[in-house]
Amino acid sequence: MVSTNEETQLVEQLHYTLGDLDASFSDDLEGLLTWLNPNETQSNHQLRPPILRIKSAIKTLVNNKNAQEPFLDLLRQFVVYQTRVHFFSNFRSLVHFKDLQKLERYYEFPLRFLELFGDGEWTEEISGFRNYLIFYHPVLARNVKLRLKQLILEDDFEMAMKVYSWLCSAEGHSLTQLLVDIILAKVKVFASKEFSAEFTRRFVIMETYNSFMASFWSTLSTMLECPEDNHEITKEIYESFEAQFIEIRTRQAFDIFVTEYPNSKPTLLELRAVLKSPSKYTQLITELLVQFEARVLKPSVTTVEILLSYVKAIKSILTVDISNRYFQLLTNFVRPYLMERRDAVVSFLNAMLGMGTIEHRESGTKVSQANITSQLSKEISDSYQPIFTTTMESSSHSQQQYTPIRATGEPVCSQVIARFLEWSPEPSDSIQFNGDNSFMSEGIFNIIIELFDSRDVIIAEFLRLFKEKLFNLRGYRLETNWHSSLKILKERVGLNKFSNAQDFSNVNNIDVMLRDIKQSEDLCCEMHKIPNINVDIVPKIISYLFWGIVSDSESSSREVVLPTKLDHDMTIYKNNYAKMKKGRKLRLHPAQSLVKIRLTCANGRTSRHEVSMDKAVILSCFSSEHESKSLTLEEVSAKVDVEKEFVQQVLNFWLQASVLTYDHESGLYCTLDHGENSDDVKSSRMLGSTGSTIHGRNDSGAAAVRSQQQELFQSMERVWPFIKGMLTNLGSMKPEKIHSFLKMAVPKEMGFTATVSQLESFLCHMVDENQLESTASGAFKLVK
Amino acid sequence: MLLEFEKVYPVFSWSWDIPGDENAVKENGDEDLCGICRVSYNGTCPSCKYPGDDCPLVIGECNHNFHVHCIQQWLDTPTAKGLCPMCRQPFSLKRNVAINEFQMGRLAKVLINSQPATLNDDQDMMMEPEFVVR
C-alpha cells in the first residue's frame, strides 16, 4: 500500500509519542497499526481475533491505564483516517445492504478489542458515512429502500427493522412516509391475494382488513413509532383496501358481472357499497364493456349466449349501480351487434317461453345450447318483477351522515363552500339515460326488450312462433308457458295498448287464432258424435286471413291430390262443416296439416313418423300392400299434381329419413323395404315448417352462399326505389342511416328484415352495377 | 311398404261459400272485398273482432256482397233509400242461398224502414216482410 504523507506523519508521531518506550515497542506498534488498518487487506485483522502478539501489544499500548492521552488521540486519528481512506476509495463498489453491513462490521471489528472510542464517537463517524452514502450513492440508497420494501412484503420484519433503522440513522430522521408507502404496497399485495377469486364471501374488505391488522399492525406500528390506535394511518390502510378492491374488481368486471353472476352477488353488493365517485363507475363500466366486447361479441358466440351474458350483465349493473344510469350504456353497446343477429328475437322468445328444454331438443339442437337457453329463460323468468330501489334510500341516508368538518386544517367557511356550493357535474357519458322511476318499476324485462330494435319485431316474431305452435298443436290445448308468455307480452310489450294499427291487428290476430282453436275444439266434439266418422281426424278450422295464410289461387299449386281414403274422410268433414255452419265451406291446407303415419315394410318392420300432410301424401304414392314400388320424380309429380321442385324436396326429405332410396341410373325412387340397416332408420320428427331446411343433396357450401346472396339481392331489389328516393333527396348517406330510414319507410307487408351489413353488401353490389358510388367517408350516393 | 294414417290433424281454412264464386274470373282482386268497408268477405267489418259467426256476410240479389253490419248501417242512413250502394238497385237478399238464411229476419226490418215514401207498386211489395226476399 502506498503511504500518503498524512499517514506517514501520523505513524511517525505515534512512534514519537511513545518516546522512550518506542525502542522496545516499535515493532508492536507497527504490528498493531497494520492489524487495525482496514486498507491493509492482506495483513490486517481479517475479522479474526488478534493473535497473541497483537493482543499483548493492545494490552501494553492501549488498554492500559498508563496509556497516554496524546498517543491514544493519535491512534484514534489514525483509525479514523485509515477508515475514511478505505471508505472513500471503496464506497462506490457498495451496491446492496448486505455489502454495507459487511463494511460496517469490517470497520467495527477491531475496535471491539480496543477501548479507543467513547460511546457516541464511533457511531457519529459511521452515521457520517451513512449520510454520505444516502446523498452521494443514489443506486445504493434506492437498493436499500427496495430491500426494505421487499423485506416488509416478505414479512421479514426483524431484518426490515434493521434496514429501517439504518435508513433512519442515515437520513437523520424517521421515514414515516416511506414506510407508509411500503405498507400500502403490502396492502396491495395482500389484498390482491385475498380478493382475487372471492366472489361469494360477504364483507371481504372488512375481513381482509381485520386479518391484515391482526397479523401485522403491532409490528408495523412499532416501526412507525406510532401508537396502535393511530386512526389516521389505519384509516388510510382501510381506504387503500377499498381502493384495491375496486381496482381488482374492475379488472375482473366481466367475471363478476357475467360469468359468475348469480354467485357473485355478495361481491357486487360490496362493490356498490364502496363505489362512490362517478369516475370509478365509469371506469368499471368501461372495463366491463371492453371485456364484454372481447369475450362475447364475437362471431363464434351464439346468440343465446350473448343474450344470457347481456341479461346477467344488466342484472349485475343494476345491483351495483343504484342510480340506474349505466345499464343504458351496455344496451346501446350491445344493440348494434345483436341487430346483426337474425335469430336474436327468436332466441329470446324461445327462452321466454321456456322452450330450452322441450322443443329445442326435439329439433335437434345441441344439448349445451339448450342448457344455455334454459339458463336464459330462468334469468328472464324472474325479471318481470319491478326493480326495488331500496338502495336509493340508503345512499341518501349516508349522504346525511356526511360530517361537516372534514379536516381540521381547513377554515370552516371553505369547507361549507366545498360541501354545498361547489358542484361539479357528473360525467356526461353517464347521464344518457335519465333515471325514470316509472321505467324502473316495469322491471328488467323491459330493459331486455329495449335491446331489440322495436317492439314490433318481437311481436311479429312471437306471432310467427305462436302460429307455428298452433299449427303443430296435436290437440287444442296450449301449454301454460304460452299462455303466461302471451300474458306477459300483452302487459309488457304493450300489446294491448294499441299504440298503432299494426299492434292492434296483431293482438286481434292472436285473439282470433285462439278463438279459432277453441271453436275447432267444439266443432270437433260435435263432429266426432256423427256416426261412422273417422275420429282419428282432429281438424283445426282457421280464419285464414288472420293466420297469414293465402287461401286462394296462389297456393292452389300445392293442392295435392290426396289418397282416396284420406280424401274421402276430408270430404266428410267438409260436408259436415257446411251443414253445421251454413254458408261456409272448408279448404284443406296440407302444408300446415300434421299427420302421424305408420310405415309397415314388407319384412314386417314398422316405423312411425310425424310429418306435414303433403309429405305424407307424396310418400303415400309408394304405398302398397305387398311389393315395393318404384316411381320416377315425374310419375310422383303427376300422381299428386304438385310441381316437381317441391316433390323433389319432399323426396329428398324421405331419402334422408331412410325411407326411400334413389337409383341414379334409372332415376327411380324406391321404398327401402328390405333394408337390413333397420337401426339406421331413425324416426324423423321433422315437421312441415322445418322441412324447408332440407336442400338438394348436391348443394355445395359455396353454391348455397351464392344462392343466399342472390336471394338477398332479390329481396333488396324491392326496397331499391326507397333507397333511390332517399338518396335523391338527401345526397349521400351512410348505410346505418339508410338502414334506419328503410326500417321506418318500407311498409310492413313488404317486410324489410335485412341487417345493416346485408344492406351494405347490397349497396356495394349496386356500386358494382354502377348505380351507386361510394364516398371516402363510407357513405353512398347516386351516380349522376 | 304400406303407409297408414294413424292420426290426422288437418288444417282447414273456412271461407264464405258464395255461389258462382268458383267460376267468377277475378280481374283485379277487388271481387273479394266488401263494397262498403273494403275488407275481405272473410274478414270482419270495422266494428267486429271475430270473423265468421259474429260478422256474417250477406249476398244481395244484385250479386253484391257485404258484411251484414256494413249493409245494415248503410241502409239505416236516410240517403240509402234502400238501394245497393254499389249498383243503386233496390237492395234485397238473394234467395235460396245458405249464407243468407240467418240474416233474413235481421235485415227485413231495416229494409222496410229504409224504403222511400213514394214508391211504385212493384216496390211497395217489398215492404212486406215476406217480400224482402224476392
Automatic annotation (TrEMBL), chain A:
Keywords: Cell cycle, Cell division, Mitosis, Ubl conjugation pathway. PROSITE patterns: CULLIN_2. It comes from the Eukaryota. GO terms for molecular function: ubiquitin protein ligase activity; ubiquitin protein ligase binding. SMART domains: APC2, CULLIN. One of its GO terms (cellular component) is anaphase-promoting complex. InterPro entries: ANAPC2, ANAPC2_C, Cullin-like_AB, Cullin_homology, Cullin_homology_sf, TPR_ANAPC2, WH-like_DNA-bd_sf, WH_DNA-bd_sf. Residues 447-655 form the Cullin family profile domain. Gene3D superfamilies: Cullin, Chain C, Domain 2 (3.30.230.130), Winged helix-like DNA-binding domain superfamily/Winged helix DNA-binding domain (1.10.10.10). GO terms for biological process: anaphase-promoting complex-dependent catabolic process; exit from mitosis; metaphase/anaphase transition of mitotic cell cycle; positive regulation of mitotic actomyosin contractile ring contraction; protein K11-linked ubiquitination. Belongs to the cullin family. This is Anaphase-promoting complex subunit 2.
Automatic annotation (TrEMBL), chain B:
GO terms for molecular function: cullin family protein binding; ubiquitin protein ligase activity; zinc ion binding. Keywords: Cell cycle, Cell division, Metal-binding, Mitosis, Ubl conjugation pathway, Zinc, Zinc-finger. Residues 45-88 form the RING-type domain. It comes from the Eukaryota. It holds the Pfam family zf-ANAPC11. InterPro entries: RING-box_E3_Ubiquitin_Ligase, RING-H2_APC11, Znf_RING, Znf_RING/FYVE/PHD. One of its GO terms (cellular component) is anaphase-promoting complex. SMART domains: RING. One of its GO terms (biological process) is anaphase-promoting complex-dependent catabolic process. CDD domains: RING-H2_APC11 (cd16456). This is Anaphase-promoting complex subunit 11. It comes from Lachancea dasiensis.
